Predict the 3D structure of the following.
Amino acid sequence: MDPQLLKIALSGLILLGCIGLFFGIGLALAAHKFAVETNPLIDKVLHALPLAQCGGCGYPGCEGYAIAVVNNPDVPPNLCFPGKEAVARVVAELTGKKMVAVEDQIAVVRCSRVEGRVSHKHHYIGFHSCTAANLGFGGPSSCLYACIGLGECAEACPFNAIEMVESFPVVNPDKCVSCGVCVRTCPKKIIELQTLKARVQVACSSQDFGKDVKAVCEVGCIGCKLCVKVCPAKAVAYVDNRIAIDHKRCIAYGPSCENVCVAKCPREIFRYYKGRPAIARNVADGLKMAG
């Protein structure tokens, strides 16, 4: 090989090496100067969370909540819905915050479209999404407030807790962690989070007048307000043309009312809620996102 060419090649390698060394030292100095110190407590809190990444706490993932609950004194330790009370106690202990009671909830669908034999006013052809179908005259159902049934809530659920049966969402209580993703996803806003200690529920979200409800649904609430009048606990109200239940007041009053609201409902849409006081979950192993 020509010695002159070899000399040129070695000179180039040395030059490139010097340039790399120069920029490497510069980057190292910059990283040291502008380094952001991390709080080791954040890693401890993050490790205690189930890492479900559901966003139910209102923060961008578990890391976002860990940073907030450590750095912000106003963020309570009980916002991790999948972790429930067990995780809340650990977070409270790590952050030195007062333990706040965790109410076990579950998603409930306030609609009886299948039972009420609600027909379709048109056949929807388009993108398979409840949100998309809702843009076309409020969806295909004759009831404007009925479940559209394309399963957007089931697809969005991070825990596979919703199964579509006859194009209607059925919540699995053993999988639902009350993260609220389905509540935020439903364009009809007919899915709510309800305490497992609830005694009654109304499986209807219609805001139409009684005559219009009867025309499209065999069991829908007709807004007669009998339940409101007879409730001794004053736990039932008619708000925005829809029944609203104050479950805390209902639970506090107790069963001495003999569930008169259920007995007086002429459409039998006011019903007993057979929830459980608690759901066994293996939090120690962590609840992972589906898929």
